[in-house]
């Protein structure tokens, strides 16, 4: 009994003395959270499929196969058969291979657009939060204008300005939607850091303003922004699919992309609705996975939260 009590006492003392870092505590919470595990599993599977898509996909996404073309008739599109688990599409192409390769396309667009929006938002938010005054007023008024426009409408407006739709225009349009979100969030976090004790202390010691911002304020303000990036990935995937569905995405109709595949399937809903159900289900599940993971990260990194 004495030994057990001493072990417990020692464990409590170690916890108090050494403590747990915020990241360790957040990881502990995430490992116990079924929502986080579900989201991480969906995201992990999606990333794995996207990265290994050229290896997993058994066929070329643009190749039409004679065995599928032979079954193409007015009012009939071939369903699952040997060698083609999901059957063919309206042009006799392997629908399974197109679904797999479209995952890679979706991941590239979502990640690149989010990274661009994050980079630009970091610059705007850092300048506004660190210097304040007229710099803050000008940058935040521009940000407020962008935030006042619905995200999808803003993305459509930006994409429609391009001379010809392409994957690049989709990435630019989606990234512009993400910029004000990151800028506003980082600006708030930077303002909270300006009056913190450690920032006031290093400022009083005569440390240069740029060093204070980059070494003391910015690193401590990045936590919420990183969590928001996970949530923004879900929005980026939805917006990119919406632009492709509306014909503002890649002009190449042969490219495998879930939003474009969903748009092409609209004319064949009464013939083979699975052509629309599969890409729609994939978009919903992947966006849900990033959302669940992002919300779980936000709660786990909240020092006031308890599980």
What letter string, H or E per element, gives the SSE order? HHHHHHHHHHHHH
- Provide the number of structural domains: 1
Major β-sheet profile: none
Name the CATH architecture. Orthogonal Bundle
Mean pLDDT: 81
CATH topology annotation = MetI-like fold
Provide the helix percentage: over 70%
Radius of gyration: 25 Å
Low-confidence runs: 11-18
Describe the structure.
The protein is mostly helical and 307 residues long. It has a single domain (22-58, 84-300), classed as Orthogonal Bundle (MetI-like fold). 73% of the residues lie in helices and 0% in strands. It has helices at 2-18, 22-32, 34-51, 53-56, 66-69, 95-131, 133-148, 151-160, 167-194, 197-204, 209-245, 258-264, 274-300. α2 packs across α13 (274-300), α6 (95-131) runs antiparallel to α7 and α7 (133-148) crosses α9 (167-194). It is elongated, with a radius of gyration of 25 Å. The model is unreliable at 11-18 (pLDDT under 50).
What layout of secondary structure does this protein have?
Layout lengths: L1 H17 L3 H11 L1 H18 L1 H4 L9 H4 L25 H37 L1 H16 L2 H10 L6 H28 L2 H8 L4 H37 L12 H7 L9 H27 L7
Helix pairs in contact: 2-13, 3-6, 3-13, 6-7, 6-9, 6-11, 7-9, 8-9, 9-11, 10-11, 11-12, 11-13, 12-13
């Amino acid at each position: 009994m004495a030994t057990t009590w001493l072990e417990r006492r020692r464990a409590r003392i170690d916890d108090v003395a050494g403590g747990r870092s915020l990241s360790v505590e957040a990881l502990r919470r995430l490992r116990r959270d079924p929502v986080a595990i579900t989201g991480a599993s969906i995201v992990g599977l999606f990333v794995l499929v996207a990265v290994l898509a050229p290896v997993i996909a058994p066929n070329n996404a643009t190749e039409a196969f004679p065995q599928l073309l032979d079954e193409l008739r007015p009012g009939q599109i071939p369903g699952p058969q040997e060698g083609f688990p999901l059957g063919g599409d309206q042009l006799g192409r392997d629908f399974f291979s197109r679904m797999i390769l479209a995952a890679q396309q979706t991941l590239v667009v979502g990640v690149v657009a989010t990274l661009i929006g994050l980079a630009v938002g970091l610059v705007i938010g850092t300048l506004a939060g660190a210097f304040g005054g007229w710099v803050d007023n000008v940058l935040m008024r521009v940000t407020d204008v962008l935030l006042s426009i619905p995200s999808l409408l803003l993305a459509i407006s930006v994409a429609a300005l391009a001379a010809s739709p392409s994957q690049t225009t989709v990435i630019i349009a989606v990234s512009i939607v993400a910029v004000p979100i990151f800028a506003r969030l980082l600006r708030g976090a930077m303002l909270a850091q300006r009056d913190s004790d450690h920032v006031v202390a290093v400022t009083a010691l005569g440390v240069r303003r740029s060093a204070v911002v980059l070494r003391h304020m910015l690193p401590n303000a990045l936590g919420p922004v990183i969590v928001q990036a996970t949530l923004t990935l879900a929005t980026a995937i939805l917006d990119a699919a919406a632009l492709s569905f509306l014909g503002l995405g890649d002009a190449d109709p042969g490219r495998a992309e879930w939003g474009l595949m969903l748009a092409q399937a609209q004319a064949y809903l009464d013939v083979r609705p699975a052509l629309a159900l599969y890409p729609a289900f994939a978009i919903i599940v992947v966006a849900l996975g990033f959302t669940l993971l992002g919300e779980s990260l936000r709660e786990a990194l909240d020092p006031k939260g308890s599980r």
